[in-house]
Amino acid sequence: MVIVIARLKVRTGKKGELFKLAQHILAETRQEEGCISYELMDDPYSEENCAFVERWTDRAALTRHMQTPHFSDWRQKSADYLTGPSDVSLYQAEPTGL
After folding, report:
1. CA-CA distance, 79 to 94, in Å (whole number)?
2. Within a 13 Å sphere around the CA of 71, how many CA atoms are in the beta-carbon half?
3. Distance between CA 55 and CA 58 in Å, rounded?
4. Which of 1, 4, 3, 17 is nearest to 79 (CA)?
5. Which terminus of the chain has a smaller tally of CB atoms within 10 A, N or C?
6. pTM (2 decimals)?
7. What is the pLDDT of residues 74-97, one digit of tens each?
8. What is the 3-state secondary structure (H, E, C) of the chain?
């Protein structure tokens, strides 16, 4: 499983609008093959910070996601609400048997 944490810096006063805009990509992405979960999380202690937390079956599913029209549309439209590029971290999770 691949876990993605994409941290976003939001322009002051724009977080609510960004979350509203995100509803389309959240709904579309959750229907994709290989998507285990896809959430946009609010940082309640910051007016500027939020993050996508994603779980994918494998890297190929994530790659397919990044090639979808709704992902391209999100990147274009969300740019007006962000102060810069996302800080993205990828993690490979393996079963531990715990």
Report:
1. 34
2. 13
3. 9
4. 17
5. C
6. 0.91
7. 999 999 999 999 999 999 988 777
8. CEEEEEEEEECCCCHHHHHHHHHHHHHHHHCCCCEEEEEEEECCCCCCEEEEEEEECCHHHHHHHCCCHHHHHHHHHHHHHECCCCEEEEEECCCCCC
